[in-house]
Amino acid sequence: MMRHVLCALLLAGVSASGLAAAPDLHGRWMQGGLIRGQTEPGAQVWFNGKPLRVSPAGDFAFGLAYEEGPAAELRVRLPDGSEQRHEYAVERREYDEQRISGLPQKMVTPPEAALKQIALDNQRVAAARARDSAHADFAGGFDWPLSATVSGVFGSRRILNGEPRQPHFGIDLAAPKGTAIKAPAGGVVSLARDDLYYTGGTIILDHGQGVSTTYLHLSRLNVKPGQRVEGGQTIGLVGATGRATGPHLCWRANWFDTRLDPSLIVDGKPVSKGERRP
Ligand SMILES: [Zn+2]
């Protein structure tokens, strides 16, 4: 009962006396957001009941899903055994609806012969996203991978030739073929392949603790799996490989299999179509 009262106080933004301060958090409590936190070294942290990895320096991270909320819970147990529980309101989003008609049927339904490759691609991508690495490159924040006009936003509900599909979980950045793509933060290359069925030249960077970013349709890959990259390093070039209608970078971000909005991670606010970033 007491626990419940404390929780309600915290949700209202009132700090109760005798409680340790909430951990230091960066990021927006919005669907698709990434929260980066810092607590005392040696503390344990749970997000919605899931234990998180905490770096030796006290860094941790977690993502807010596409349809997260309306509230989320963070629990911290400090090395002295004291426990804090905080509840946060998650901002709800209105996602665009994108109707595309008149697409060649092969772009909407893959041919039988491609199904095996698609299944293998999905396995490889899932394995890269599942990595729970000890490094904490996410802790320093993220930059845009290139300068471009936004041509597609996170979360658009897609209706292709009249059939509802998985929402678009990337940000499309319209840039000419051959534009350099820079790592938005340090990390380790967890996938680099030039032959994925839908996404063509594809790179996934592991920024630690399940935080990853993905780069699709590249015309060239400059990195290899297992390679360490620093923020600002060119990892590949923009292209239109795979099933793309023209040259652009489809940029994605994940916390494990939770889809995140890259613009929230960089800017703290969602971008709009036609906007130039950065
Ligand atoms: Zn895209």
UniProtKB/TrEMBL annotation:
Keyword match Hydrolase: yes
Listed InterPro entries: Cell_wall_metabolism_enzyme (IPR050570), Dup_hybrid_motif (IPR011055), M23ase_b-sheet_dom (IPR016047)
Matching CDD domains: M23_peptidase
UniProt keyword terms in alphabetical order: Hydrolase, Signal
Organism: Sinimarinibacterium flocculans
Lineage: Bacteria, Pseudomonadati, Pseudomonadota, Gammaproteobacteria, Nevskiales
Domain M23ase beta-sheet core: 167-262
Pfam families in the cross-refs: Peptidase_M23
Domain of life: Bacteria
Annotated protein name in UniProt: Murein DD-endopeptidase MepM/ murein hydrolase activator NlpD
